[in-house]
Design brief:
alpha/beta; 2 domains; 7-stranded parallel β-sheet; 11 strands; single chain
Length: 239
């Protein structure tokens, strides 16, 4: 059985490509056979990671899904070898048409019938993007009956609503049985750890590449600490 990890969220700039890169790095370090696809027609950030050999695939034609291009993506998923993994990063611009196309064409059912496991990963952030990311999460819960992993990214502000933590939100309580896991991204000082991580992402470097680079030793030390924490929270999710 192959496993497909699809990152979906309608709000841009909240860390979807970051999540895609973290999943990929974790799987590769775990010895998995991983293939990667970036379908973002606007900001193909994930495709910028040369280490991952990402296939850039524009599945859009204007504001709609191009059926022929999307069929190519489905063929790639169906052709996955046994026990392999695929990470697919989707842009905010593709969220609504892609989600509709997936649902209307029973794509996840087709993949399951072919023996593949599909996992959806989405991001919820704090700050001004909280309502939009919650809306995206609600859309996914209504449209799909597959495991959903929620990544909580507090980089833009605390994830709370009227003093309540995410675990107290109605959307969580009402769907707790359907959610595969909550993944809390470690929160560090923006002036040091945050800046190091931001530079890492800007340069499309993996944590391993950072350790093998000529970055200052304390930068490498902080990045190593961040990656150790991230791996611990991912490993607890049994992906």
């Amino acid at each position: 059985m192959a496993t497909i990890h699809m990152i979906l969220q309608g709000k841009g700039g909240v860390g979807k490509s970051l999540i895609a890169s973290l999943i990929t790095q974790y799987l590769l370090e775990s010895g998995k056979d991983v293939s990667c696809v970036d379908t973002d027609p606007v900001n193909a950030t994930f495709a910028g990671y040369k280490k991952f050999n990402v296939t850039a695939l524009d599945i859009m034609n204007g504001n709609d899904i191009d059926p022929r291009r999307f069929d190519t993506l489905v063929e790639l998923m169906l052709a996955l070898p046994e026990d392999s993994q695929m990470v697919i990063d989707n842009g905010a611009a593709t969220f609504v048409p892609l989600a509709s196309y997936l649902a209307d064409n029973n794509v996840f059912e087709l993949l399951r019938e072919s023996g593949h496991q599909v996992n959806i990963h989405t991001v919820v952030t704090g700050g001004q993007a909280l309502p939009d990311t919650l809306s995206g999460l609600n859309s996914l819960l209504k449209a799909f009956e597959v495991p959903i992993y929620i990544w909580l990214n507090g980089y833009f502000g605390q994830i709370n609503l009227k003093g309540k933590s995410f675990e107290e939100f109605k959307v969580y309580k009402d769907n707790i049985d359907r959610l595969a896991a909550l993944i809390h991204l470690p929160q560090k000082k923006k002036e040091t750890f945050g800046r190091d991580l931001e530079d890492l992402l800007t340069n499309k470097m993996t944590f391993q590449q950072a350790q093998e680079s000529t970055l200052p030793i304390m930068t490498r030390q902080r990045l190593s600490m961040i990656w150790t924490e991230i791996k611990q929270v991912i490993s607890a999710c049994d992906m």
